[in-house]
Amino acid sequence: MDTFPCVVHETYWYVLVTGIDLAGDESTLVDLCTTNEAAARASYERAASNYLDVHLERWAPVFFARCVVCGEGCGSGSLLLPFRGWEDLVDDVRYYAGWTTTSEQQVFCPNHRPDKEN
Hints:
two-stranded antiparallel ribbon
């Protein structure tokens, strides 16, 4: 059993705001990510009164790009946001040197790779 599982069977609520950035491209920003539905709905109402394109999305299960052995987040700094799908997580993790994912939906940091020599 993984100490820090990547798949979490809990509902996360996302408030997403879509707009046009300075380059003229469409961009979606995360206004809030929480497991608290009431907080998400309140944030959605506030954002919807200020922006035209606001979405409230329910994600379950979610996937975290963290090492299953030590819990270190892949490229996350201090903020570890969940991914909506395993494929999205895999696509992100492949850009970080030494990190790897498995077909068993596990993530390993450079220090705990299963193929690392001792």
